[in-house]
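Dear colleague,

Following up on Tuesday's group meeting, I ran the structure prediction for the two-component complex that the binding team flagged. I've pasted the input sequences exactly as they went in, so you can double-check that nothing got truncated or mislabelled along the way. The structure tokens for the whole assembly follow below. Feel free to forward this to whoever is handling the docking comparison.

Inputs:
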Amino acid sequence: MLASPKTPRWIRAEREGIHLPTTDWWIDPSRPAANALVTHGHADHARGGHGQVWATGATRDIIELRYGALTGGRGLDYNEPVDIGDCITATFLPAGHVLGSAQILLERQGERIIVTGDYKRRPDPTCAPFQPTPCDILITEATFALPIFTHPPIEREIARLLAAREANPQRSILIGAYALGKAQRVIAELRRAGYHETIWLHGAMVAMCELYQRHGIELGPLALVSEASRDALKGQIIVCPPSSLNSAWARRLPDPVNAMASGWMRVRQRAVQRNVELPLIISDHCDWNELTGTILELSPEETWITHGREDALLHWCALHQLRARALDLVGREEDDTG
Amino acid sequence: MERFARLLTDLIYTRSRISKLALLADYLRTAPDPDRGWALAGLTGELSFPSIRAGIVRDLIRERVDPVLFALSRDFVGDTAETVSLLWPAPPGPVPPSPAVSEAVALLSAATRATAKPVLAGLLDRLDEDGRFALLKLATGALRIGVSARLAKTAFAQTFSVPLDDVEEIWYALRPPYTDLFSWACGAAEKPDITSRPVFRPFMLANPLEDGVLDLADYAAEWKWDGIRIQIVHASGETRLFSRGGEDITASFPDIARAFAHEGVLDGELLVRGGAQGGEAGGAASFNALQQRLGRKVVPANLQAEYPAFVRLYDVLFDRGEDLRRLPWSDRRVRLETLVSQLNPGAFDISALIEAGDFDELADLRAAARATDIEGLMLKRRDSPYEAGRKAGLWYKWKREPLTADCVMMYAQRGSGKRSSFYSDYTFGCWTAPESEGGVLLPVGKAYSGFTDEELRWLDGFVRRHTVNRFGPVREVEKTLVLEVAFDAVNPSTRHKSGIAMRFPRISRIRRDKPASEADEIRTLRRMIASDPGSAAASTEVRPGD
């Protein structure tokens, strides 16, 4: 067994989030806190009701879109160190997960801790790429931490999507994609693949797509499904929240091919359970090789593992003689953001 | 293998029966021989490779992937073949050409216990993920991809415009890769002649009698014996016993096989001598006694003596090469009575007809049968031909109380007290519509009693081996195990999505022999709501012994 490592006294993992007790700052707290550092805008990380919220400008815009205007805190640029008290400096670094997503580097008297938030290592036209940064303690996510999860190249999945469209000229292609991040990435990747026709949106997707566009992300021509006739949607690509697949809303579409863009689609039964005909393995999280590769690359003295399949990653760390421990954070379950 | 692998993947993601049939038809029409025949065998569950055991697959992957990581992955995926197909490391170097289905089948068939591992590994090394999944599904038996044997045969019949009944009739006489079947269907050969061969013919089945009164002038009544329905065939000097699904169970009942040398095909109930069904001499024991004899490849003499089996005959399909199936039941009954008098009375008797003046009297007789283990009554239309399958209006089963239904285990939870640590509380469901028509299972009740300690250990093991999901203490299981659930009544319920609640449900039997797709539909349960448990309307769809 490895010796029990020393844990800095200025950071604690609580069920409600990562806590810096000496300055009372929280990272991604799951209940209202006076001072919150927020890694990104997904609901399991960014909740309403905090006092001051420090986050990237894009993340603050996303939070305001979802929860209303923020009253306290400020927007930060990537790589802009800020002092949060007790000699602790916080620096937001790109995480490559969704627009505005950040890892948070915490430094105090030479000790360096990185909280990755959610992250991925693949290129994504809608957000800045993950910035690998050496650290003493790496607090990593583990959403897809099982060796069965190896995400294929996104080009392959986009090609399958376009092939399904070609093969079904009388049907619409309905893609269930999480409204923040996944939807815009799928759209941007379709554009990169040379698809320039109008992409149709469920009403719930519109505001977030507009937010992305305001941040300079090119999404091409978009329009509301409700503005098109049923016939006009034949052979068209439509993006909706995953919960709208198989819903009453979807019934007015022309015989939709149900597609879903998610890392969970790697497992057949996951797709079948959601009545998905065209599973697209597109994830905004690291796959197994990227998670383990990142740990090896950053080579921290210790790895803390947050939400997901922490047992498998913990076991892998033990196999590789790497110090690791699992954190028990609430509210970080398998969800559609995968 | 790529085409077959793509077919399986497409079928998995396809819900509608019509689309499934179209996918199957496209494959059957265009795939090369003999691949399509082997594929058809795989789809109908007719392939088996005795030397490829599930343990071999696990051993192979554990040699390549850390066993704990495999176990966690298997736990998440819920399917060994899929887990292994996802985890299998691609060998270094250029990918060798993928094997054809026929090549894979030939290699797997030729494998011995000693060579099974390298043979399987060699094949997996030549396939991509979907190919590995298809190969492992083929190699280890049950495909479980939402395509029944019946659907595959239906697709075959539609593809080549041949009658499904003809396909069913000759099916059991043919062997993969079904070259003669394809030749006939494509018009290149005559229909294979099977009359002189000891092969299974599809059973005639009964529908549950749900309401109404039958005129006994049109219908004859018999007891519904609680054993297993069998077909006994003697042709060209050979005797075979087949179970309801066409499985050859001759080896389990050598005593019966030895006692039958009359050229023909008979339909009856396999029972063990005892007192639970019928009481006096000539009675039959309960189903549990018969279970001692089931599933054995070799039956020791003492077991044959302790649990003497016999067949209670219901019908005759062929007599000395003459096909009697088009005759009315009453004529076949006369032939059967003549025939049974020539058979060994220790091994064969005839299911007696019940004399009742009218339907009310019959209902009284049925109610009186509650004290015994008899399952209920059968009502057969006197002019009915012997028709394969479950044709409406010809045969009915009219089961006695309690109400029972075949449900599928969905979730399990650990029990408390004596049962703590055992998964002993089961939530089970019934279908919203036939699975082949896109029906899904909805929970209809929960039970934690009715099984023996031995059955509990088995159920607990099943839950652990087939968990697909965990929700705190609740485990979601693969929806494959059919539980016969007995209950006193069905009440409407707004608390449950299925709209019904069972009163005092208990597990009455574990139905390992029954595929989940054949479990009951919710509407069958819903129909029981209004009915008085003592009335004629309270019968229910259930066992295969019909």
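The radius of gyration of chain B is 25 Å.

Cheers,
M.
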